[in-house]
Amino acid sequence: MIDKSKFQNKSELFKFLKDNEKQLVSQKKFEMKKADAVSYIVHSVNEKDEAEKAADNVQYLLSKDKIKVRVIINTTKLLDSHDDVHIDGLWKKSIKELKLVYHLQEHLMKFDHVISDEVTASVKKMTWKEIGIDFDGQTEALIFDSEIEKARNPFMFEQYARGYVKNHSVGMRYVQLFLCINSNEAYYSSEKANWDKYINEVVNKDAAEDNGYFWAVTEAKLVEGSAVLMGSNWATPTQSVKESEPPRGTQYEGPAQPPALKSMFSKFNQLTKN
């Protein structure tokens, strides 16, 4: 992140961004983006989301060895604390190429911070209202459906079971991004063209206009997704927490007879025939 306090005004900041654009892009592509709570802004999130509902069933969930969670790792069209706006489609290539992705605790690539490696990652168009955010329109949500074993990370198992995990963050590498600057000076003509192209997609447009610039991220490589206290993108709640379904074939699904009854009737038929 750029320390904006070093600049006396936006003109100085814009000039720095333009003059160092290539280096800044290279730096962003070299580093892995993850949560940064320094510029975290609290917004209104629907308190009646699915994570809250899990509290009604806490003791039942805690008694289980495995639970299944659906969490939103990232959303597009939101100006985040890294001055980034993720654009619809940025995960398209990465999701297709994905072979293994980790659901981590606070971005730490350590064995004791793995929440799950049984993860199905997907992208889904959702309304902001469905996510519990008071914005109009739609976003593309990066979703993790994760099977969480109590034995692997007991602490995070309990955090999810109790409905405490409210925020997530994506660990990613930038692939393609564009600097957008709101200036009519000829020096910034290409950056202004980028601004005009993407500004109307930004759901917190007022914040972008106040900032005067942002990075439009059009392609990124997914590395991991993490549970965090505060993410650079705050529109990333837990959607649901429930008991993990037993493997198919081990549960009675009806309307056929349960295995025990079926076996009993089979033995009875044999006896009556004899």
What descriptors fit this protein?
alpha+beta, 10 strands, 274 residues, four-stranded antiparallel beta sheet, six-stranded mixed beta sheet, 10 helices
Which SSEs are present, and which pair or pack?
Blueprint: H1 10-19, H2 21-30, E1 32-33, H3 50-53, H4 58-62, E2 66-75, E3 84-86, H5 92-97, E4 102-105, E5 114-116, E6 118-127, H6 128-131, E7 138-149, H7 154-161, E8 167-181, H8 189-198, H9 205-211, E9 213-228, E10 238-243, H10 259-273
Parallel strand pairs: 3-9, 4-9
Antiparallel strand pairs: 1-8, 2-7, 2-10, 4-5, 6-7, 8-9
Write the element-wise H/E pattern from the N-terminal end onward: HHEHHEEHEEEHEHEHHEEH
How large is the radius of gyration? 24 Å
Query: How many β strands by DSSP?
Result: 10
Mean pLDDT: 87
Describe it for me?
The chain has one domain (4-273). 29% of the residues lie in helices and 30% in strands. It has helices at 10-19, 21-30, 50-53, 58-62, 92-97, 128-131, 154-161, 189-198, 205-211, 259-273; strands spanning 32-33, 66-75, 84-86, 102-105, 114-116, 118-127, 138-149, 167-181, 213-228, 238-243. β4 and β5 form a beta hairpin. 34% of the residues are buried.
Provide a short characterization of the protein structure.
It contains ten helices and ten strands. The protein is α+β, with helices and mostly antiparallel strands and 274 residues long.
